[in-house]
Amino acid sequence: MLSKAKISKIIQELKKCYPDPYCALNYSKDYELLFATRLAAQCTDARVNTITPTLYKRYPTLEALAGADISELEKIIHSSGFFRAKARDIIVASNMLLNEFSGRVPDNMEDLLRLPGVGRKTANLILGDIYKKPAVVVDTHCIRLSNRIGLADTKDPVKIETELRKTLPAEESSDFCHRLVLHGRAICTARKPLCDICCISNICKKVL
Fold first, then answer.
1. pLDDT by residue (tens digit) across 48-79?
2. Catalytic pick from 139, 159, 192, 196?
3. Left, alpha or beta for 61 (phi > 0: left; psi -120 to 50: alpha)?
4. Separation between Cα atoms, residue 131 and residue 135, nearest integer Å
5. Does the predicted model carry a pTM greater than 0.90?
6. CA neighbor of 202 nearest in space, from 10, 1, 16
7. Which domains does the chain have, with CATH numbers?
8. Residues 182, 192: contact at Cβ < 8 Å?
9. Using 50, 70 and 90 to split pLDDT, how confident is the model at 147?
10. 3-class SS at 198?
11. What pLDDT, on a 0 to 100 scale, did the predictor assign at position 2?
């Protein structure tokens, strides 16, 4: 594993390269991010961003989503894949948010994981982006880069989350994960990482 000094250097270098980390999913309400993330399972963020404007125009409130006709909802989100399960989860989760959480997305891991279709990745994204709490979002980019760089030595998302929580400063963790996504898309791609122009190539385990 990398030393604390090297980890600190990685954090600082990625911060320079990506000074404004962001979530690629478009949303304006807390539940919109929740459902956009559900739609993004086995689907690209870009595709989800073409679906959600139509989705939220047809169902502009949480109440509308809770009472949505599942067949109509399936048609709107069809191109995201696994549309039957996703439509069911959105409707059930909407009703749970209204009936159990006063229409607000929960602000803690335990309650978030009770919602259908919500795993630790989605829950951490909500906690970090909506509630600005320390969070570690382990997606495919995070798994790939954490192993390549030397921050983890496992493909298990829960183990990677645990390891990153140990090594990253809590206040940096959420933004750091967003930076990993940006870096994974721009430089450290799955097929051909561009190590020659990478800002952390002198620290990365893959290069060393």
1. 999 999 999 999 999 999 999 999 999 999 99
2. 139
3. beta
4. 10
5. yes
6. 10
7. 4-22+137-197 (1.10.1670.10), 30-129 (1.10.340.30)
8. no
9. very high
10. coil
11. 83
Instruction: Identify the CA nearest to 30 among candidates 97, 100, 83.
Output: 97
Catalytic residue among 89, 121, 129, 175: 121
Rg (CA), the chain: 18
DSSP assignment of 116-141, as one string?
A: TT--HHHHHHHHHHTS--------HH
Alpha-carbon distance of 105 to 123, in angstroms, equals 10
Residue bearing tokens 């270098």: 13
Alpha-carbon separation of residue 158 from 24, 110, 111, 142, 163 (angstroms): 23, 15, 18, 12, 9
**Residue corresponding to tokens 């006709």:** 69
94: its two tokens: 């909407």
Q: How far apart are CA 63 and CA 56, in angstroms?
A: 12
Tokens (6 digits) for 137:
């979002």
Task: Give which of 4, 6, 13 is closest to 182, Cα–Cα.
Answer: 13
Both structure tokens of 22: 């962001």
Is the CB of residue 33 less than 8 Å from the CB of residue 129?
yes
Q: Is 139 a catalytic residue?
A: yes
Active site residue 16: no
Would you tell me how many other CB atoms lie within 10 Å of the CB of residue 69? 10
Residue 156 amino acid letter: D
Report CA-CA distances (Å) from 60 to 31, 35, 63, 94, 121: 11, 13, 8, 12, 25
Cα dist. 95→40, 51, 68 in Å?
21, 21, 10
